[in-house]
Structure formats: C-alpha cells, structure tokens
Design brief:
heterodimer, A: MetI-like fold, 8 helices, B: 254 residues, six-stranded mixed beta sheet, four-stranded antiparallel beta sheet, globular
C-alpha cells in the first residue's frame, strides 16, 4: 500500500468539486429544516391542548428511536407507493432535517425553560399578547443562547451525509467510493474524503466555539 | 376598587391565604406587612392573575377576576376577559424583570404599542415623559444590563406607568437593591403616589416608608389579616400582640 501522489492529485478535484458541494448543500439545507421544524416541534410540545402535545411527543420519540437510514429508505422507497415521489437530494434533505429536528426541539425546549419565570410574569403584567410575548420576549432570549448547541447538531449532520449514498446522492464519501471503484484504488480517495470531513468539522467547531464565547459574553 | 371575598389559596397542603376578606378604595395607598410566608406577595400575584384562587372571589371595579358571566351562568374567565380586567392593573417586581433583549425605550413602548394600540410616536412620547419623571432621560438607549439595580427598578416603575394603570402593585420593590439605592426609589414612589390618583397595594419591609405614605396598613400572619389600621395607630399603638412582636423584630434588625 503506497501513496500515489499523481493519482491523488487526479481524483482530488473530483471529490472536492462534486462531493464537497453536495455535502455542504445537504447539510446547510438539512440544518435549515432542522432549525425551523425543531422550533415548531418545541412549541407544539408545549401546547396546552393535550392531543397536540401528545402527538408531538409521540412523533419525536418515534423519530429518535428509529435509525436515520431507515427513515431515508422510508421516504425514498415507501412514499412513492402512496404517490409521493421525491428526488434523492430532496429526500436526503428532508430526512436529515426531520431526524435532527427532534434533537433541536430538545435544545429549544431547554433554551425556553432557561428564560426566567419573571419574564413571563412581566409580560403578563404588561398585558402583552401571547404571540408577542413569544416573538419579542421569550424567543429573543432563548434562541441566542442555544445557537452553539444547534451548531453542534449541524456538525453531526455533516458527518451523517454519507448515508445518502444509499439512495444515490453522492457526497464526499460517495464520490470517493465511486472514483476508487473505477481505478480499483481506494487509499487516496478515501483518505482525501476523511481529511475533507476533518477539515470541515474542525472549521465548523471553531465557528461554534466562537459563537459560544459571544453568547457567554452577551449574558 | 379591589375586593377579596373569602379568598382561599392553597399550594398543595399549604394554606397560604385562609378565607381572606378585605377591600381597597380607589386612590388608597394600602401597605401589606407581616413575616415572610404570610401570604402578602400571593395577594399581589392573585390580583395580577399570575396565580389562581383556590376558592373565593376577587373583584376589581366590581368585575370578578377569575370568572365571567355567560348568559346567566358564571364560567371560568377566558383569556380575552382576563386581558380586559388586567388592563387596569400594573405591577412592579422585586427582581425588576425588565426585558434584557430590549433597550430602555423599547421596554417602555412595547406594551403600550402592542397591548393598548398606541402609535410608535405616541408611545415614545409617553416613554420619554416617564423617563424624565424617573430621572433617567439619558439612559433611553441603554440596555438594562448597563443600569444599576436602582436604575433598573426606576425603569420598571416607568414601564408599569406607561400602561396608565388605575392600580399599581408593588412587590417588595426595594428588597433586591443595594442599601444606598433604596431611598431614591422610595422617594420616587412617594412622589408618584402623591401626584396621581393611582390605587397602590404595596408589600414592603421598609416600615418608615409604609408609615410615611400609607393610608392604611394591613398586618398579615398565616394568611389572615391580624390588624387593619391607619399607620400611626398600627405602628405606635397596635392592638395585637402579634403586630407588636413583628414590629419589634423588624425594627431591631433594621
């Protein structure tokens, strides 16, 4: 097993060009879904209507207790049976977003509960409408302090994107495997894929640390 | 203006208010004193609808806080009804509870705009007048975290006044302040009490202040009123032994 620099340079642009872009796009879009849907789930979970909070609870537990890969398969292979066919990338984004939304919901919940009760009481004493209390008082205090935790889930999501190759979405690892199988040489492409993930994760971690410092400074 | 009819409040097995009856006339300044845990703060929280009565009824201007008339039946108050009754009541908290994510100006304009429906210009004009009243005009663009405790409490008082309440509830408003900041906040409250016809219900441990501004003082113990008298009478020659021992303990401490 020797390292072939010429071969490495030859496959590098392909892995970076196709793979990196797909991984980043899937992660960014998946995160957007997870951040929005997670907030919605966290709010529904707090609903005073028992049925709503109950169904939300069941949904969260169900998604968390089943593997992401099964959920990807379900969306991709089962939904067409009921007439809903999505392209692989859309399926991937929805699956990642849905899966991680159940985790970000918990993050939001913790952030909302960390807002002191006095803030709710002041809003009541001032007769602020319920909706306005959420949008102007509670969420602006709850969300900034959970941003680092949300960022950590984006990093986890990035590292799960290789699962998407099972439905034909080729990101970094998928392209590396494809390239490797063509030349029957895997050392260089797979190593490059690993290093790319390492670099991306480290960069994202630094960003999250920086966020953490800022949030702590603001509080 | 305010009437408590046989109000009972229990937290689990603990009876906080025990068949309480009392009323407050419009424009009156009534101070509640008594040992911690005697139910004084709970009275304010019930009025502000932050807690619900276990039994009995509270009336504000003849309207029941917890129930409303639907046809000929009395049903639990819904959110809309409560909002209407609550509109007349303002509250200042021990921990100020300013909104830390808003500047001072927005703390004062948020509720008048969103709850009373004032225009931004009207609300800002009102806010600036009130900041002048509480002596903090120069802090209009500061964040609460940049203010001292005394300044935060002055802003909180201005914020409550911005809603033009008929009634102001003061919940130990100087208890969280450094000693040297207490006098200023109390002087401001005295000023407001004498220059407006707002009804005040005040829970405090500042006996000199209570004696100075109150029309009436209620001494509480174990969820009941032990003594109800004008301040000179209550502080100089209380009828009840419980009041005497309480006042002696407070005066020795402070």
């Amino acid at each position: 097993m020797i390292w072939d620099w010429d071969y490495a340079w030859e496959v590098f642009p392909k892995i970076v060009g196709d793979g990196l872009r797909t991984a980043v796009v899937a992660t960014v879009l998946g995160s957007l879904v997870a951040y929005t849907l997670g907030l919605v789930l966290a709010l529904l979970r707090r609903s005073p209507i028992r049925v709503v909070s109950g169904i939300t609870w069941a949904f969260i537990e169900f998604i968390r207790s089943t593997p992401l890969l099964v959920q990807i398969f379900f969306l991709f292979f089962v939904l067409p049976d009921i007439g809903l066919t999505l392209d692989p990338m859309t399926t991937g984004v929805i699956a990642l977003g849905l899966h991680y939304a159940t985790y970000t919901a918990e993050v939001y919940r913790a952030g909302i509960e960390a807002v002191p009760p006095g803030q709710w009481e002041a809003a009541t004493a001032l007769n602020l409408p319920r909706r306005r209390t959420w949008t102007a008082v509670i969420l602006p205090q709850a969300v900034p302090r959970v941003l680092p935790a949300l960022g950590n889930y984006t990093i986890s999501m990035l590292k799960e994107t290789p699962l998407l190759l099972m439905i034909g979405v080729l990101e970094i690892a998928g392209v590396a495997r494809q390239v490797g199988s063509r030349a029957f040489r895997y050392v260089e492409p797979v190593t490059i894929a690993g290093v790319l993930f390492l670099v991306l994760s480290l960069a994202a971690s630094l960003l999250v640390r920086w966020l953490e410092r800022r949030v702590r400074y603001r509080n | 203006m305010i009437r408590f009819d046989d109000v009972v409040k229990r937290f689990g097995d603990v009876v906080v208010l025990d068949e309480l009856n009392f009323s407050v006339a419009p424009g009156e300044f009534v101070t509640l004193i008594g040992p911690s845990g005697s139910g004084k703060t709970t009275i304010l929280r019930l009025l502000m609808t932050l807690e619900k009565v276990t039994s009995g009824q509270i009336f504000v201007d003849g309207e029941c806080l917890s129930h409303m008339q639907r046809g000929s039946r009395l049903v639990p108050a819904d959110e809309k009804y409560q909002r209407k009754v609550r509109q007349r009541i303002g509250m200042v908290f021990q921990q100020f509870n300013l909104f830390p994510n808003m500047k001072v100006l927005q703390n004062l304009t948020e509720a008048p705009i969103r709850s009373l429906g004032l225009s931004r210009a009207e609300a800002e004009e009102r806010a600036l007048e009130l900041l002048e009243l509480v002596g903090l005009t120069e802090k209009v663009n500061a964040h609460p975290s940049q203010l001292s405790g005394g300044q935060q409490q002055r802003v909180a008082i201005a914020r409550a006044l911005a809603m033009r309440p008929d009634m102001l509830l003061l919940d130990e408003v100087t208890s969280a302040l450094d000693p040297e900041l207490v006098a200023g906040v109390l002087a401001l409250l005295k000023d407001i009490a004498s220059s407006t016809d707002i009804t005040f219900l005040c829970v405090t441990h500042e006996m000199n202040f209570a004696r100075d501004v109150s029309d009436r003082v209620l001494m509480f113990d174990h969820g009941q009123i032990v003594e109800d008298a004008v301040p000179d009478k209550l502080f100089s020659e209380p009828d009840h032994e419980r009041t005497r021992t309480f006042l002696r303990a407070v005066l020795e401490r402070g």
